[in-house]
Design a protein that fits this description.
With about 80 residues, this protein is mainly alpha-helical. It has helices at about 20-30, 35-40, 45-75, and strands spanning about 1-5, 5-10.
């Protein structure tokens, strides 16, 4: 993968079929957040709506992090427990 100013680029591997090449490209586009930026920029959003959306996204991200911590803590073996 080569990322430059013109966008995301995927080079074909040896003996790679077109379907897997397209699949890798789609995955990189989704992970980069390009589609999300385009969608958000495609229409006008009031500043209050932007703030609400940012708060909602931050809440979701925070909850995911908390769940990760809870799961890792749950999976640890504690020396006092049998």
């Amino acid at each position: 993968m080569v990322k430059n100013n013109s966008g995301i680029m995927v080079t074909r591997r040896d003996n790679e079929d077109v379907e897997s090449l397209i699949k890798r490209f789609k995955k990189k586009v989704n992970n980069s957040g390009i589609l999300k930026e385009v969608k958000n920029a495609s229409f006008f959003m009031k500043p209050s709506q932007k703030l609400k959306r940012k708060r909602k996204e931050a809440k979701i991200k925070r909850e995911k992090e908390e769940n990760k911590i809870k799961r890792s803590y749950k999976n640890e073996k504690h020396p006092g427990n049998k």
